[in-house]
Give the backbone structure.
Amino acid sequence: MPARIAHISDTHLGSRPSNGVRHNIWAEEMKTQLLESDFYKRFAELFDIIAELDPPVDVVVHSGDLYNSPWEGNPSQPPIHAQITAMRVLQEFIQKTGIPVLIIEGNHGLFKFYEVSLLDSLKLAVPGLKVATQQDLKQAIREGKPLDFSFENLDVFCFPFIDSAVLRSSNMIDIYDDWITTHQKRERLRPTVAVAHGMKLDATLYSAIFSMGYDYIALGHDHRQIKHTPNAWYAGSPERWRFDETTYKKGFLVVDVEAGADPVITPHHLEFKRPVLNEKIAIGIDDTIESVVERVEEWFSKNKLVAEWNPDTAARVRLVFEGNSKRLTSFDLGIALENIRQNVLSHNSKYNIAQFIWELKQSADAEYTAASYPEIESEFLIEDPEVDFKGYLETLEIDKNYDVETLTKIAVTSLEFAVGKREGKMTSEALQEDK
């Protein structure tokens, strides 16, 4: 008997764009910020559409990153309204339709150093919800049992996110592969689906999953709605999480699955009222501050952003300036753009813009891409921390009892733990590792 599933992913509830955002603009007063609310609306829209599908689906699978935080770049819990939205939407959907929902854990919404999951509390609040967490995965491996769910006419095997670095450091790569091939195999000749969160790009998508003969593999982590193999797709994220996603089609997938046959994939795409614009502006050798500012103003006008404020259609804008001029410096251009931003985002502004950020690319060899969401960046902004810290120490009067090399070692190691380059906690043993 065929089965039908709705495949959604990467909803990132609780995302709060904060860089270059118009201040004190609420979607709901003192509850949700304007751009944060876009993610909640999209989540509700997905389930409203799925509830009306004809024929109906047998199950909804969410392949990870339900919430945006916590994650390694932001240890905070998701906003209370994000958790309330998840509870309310899922409760109403399951009560209205009787369709079960299964959510696996991704790398977002995952506590890094605690053996607890936000999905467990969500499951307690939503009857009919099934979840598979990283803790469930670890327990299944330890006990040598499958991590799966059986529904009326299909079986689903779950592969929550697990970092390959964690598996390597624990000497678990072979054990994990063996667990997949031994315990995650289909037992019945009926539609069988796998749900996984990972990508080849960061080595978190494990090849053994593709050797198990699943009829469909529902993937999460990549925000593009894209085919990975003939029977494995990424559903993509339903909202524009970053500016480099503006060209991606957003929505979800409906998948008709039959045992031993190729799945039939039907993409569903969403439409957006809010423009998200990601454009490049070239800087010529003879450009001045005045000419660049004029070009920016022309660009605003051409894109119909000189308009009365409308919170539903106010645009998010990122402009990338490429090239060099002998008549202006990046510092001068930055000051001019900051003045533009203050004007654009003021409450008496003539622009219908909710967010305005920019990036300067001065040459092909020296490029810095500012984060559209600062909270999701966790990289060094220092080219060589060791050299820079030693240079800083040279500006100080250091007591001769202190060893410069030891101080530098402590500082650099602390940075590596702070940005997630090293796993675990900062200890004295960590300082001895490289000796």
Summary: Residues 34-51 form the longest helix (18 residues). The chain is about 30% helix and 20% strand. The first strand starts at residue 3 and ends at 8. The mean pLDDT is 89.
